[in-house]
Predict the 3D structure of the following.
Amino acid sequence: MMATRLLLFLYLTGHVFAKKPPDVDCLVLHLKYIHCSWNKNRTPEVNYTFYSWFNNKPPRECPSYLSENSINTGCKQPYLQNGDRFNNFYTKLVHGNDSYEKKHALKERVKFNPPYNVTVRYGLDSNLWLNWTQISHCVESQVRYRINSKAWMTYPVRAGIQNYCINLPSSALYELQVQSKLDYSCGGSQNSFWSDWSEPVFWGSKNSSTDTPHMNSSMSVWTPVMYGLGAFILILLVMMLLHHERIRIILIPVVPKPSLPPNVEDWFQFPKGLKESFKDNERPCPVREYCHVPESDSESSDCSTCSGTTDQTDCSVSIPVNESDLPTSCSSSTSTVSPEEEKQDSV
């Protein structure tokens, strides 16, 4: 009797487990695919047909199944629109007359691929810089590194920043990695999925015994080359300047003593021709003006005409006097010259 009851219990429990619907779990991978699987607890015994859809959209069968031992265990389909994850997502497994439907909230269920293009360099500011690239700036990251293979140290990085600085690194071997997850401002939360760690990058050396940080080998090779090239160019420029007499020594004249009267001509370097032109080689010519009075009008006080001549004892130039510049009448102070005196003057 007890054996019959035991067999009946095992049959019923086995039938219940066999009819238990598989649990479907879905993730948005790298904002490019929706990955769903139904083998979390165990591998299903039959091949299910998978359908999925968002709100107010028709169901679609899985375009690409994931299988294990010829049994469908998951589905990978394109994530067509970024805003779809804020809507409800529905899945349905169908096998014969059995179907299992489930509703999912994909808003927070986003997992990124590991960051790529991860590089490390020693900056001009004597700091160590780690840089990486992620598909979106709407992610927060965290960096971890260890020195000489010791314990990992992890540090958070704010959303939108894709670099990290290690101040004044020591002369040791650094191993660095980075991972990312969806930021809170884009629908993420504390329960958001972190990506896998990136491939490690290394800087430095365990065998370094000096206090100077390990620099890039290419930099150490090019530094003396650049110094030598700069010195060669400088020497070449100096030789060219000397050849074309571009370098001149400017002598400043000595300032004379204040007690002695300075000779202005010695201060200014006049051309020889201009300096000779300032010398006066001619004698001065005396000039006098008189009024010529005819003999008939010698007693008259009025003069009809006045003229000016020069007493040219040694001069050959006469200076005519403009009639408009002479007065029409002669004053009493004007000297008169008689014909006899004129003759004497002409002699």
User: Anything to note?
Assistant: The first strand starts at residue 25 and ends at 29.
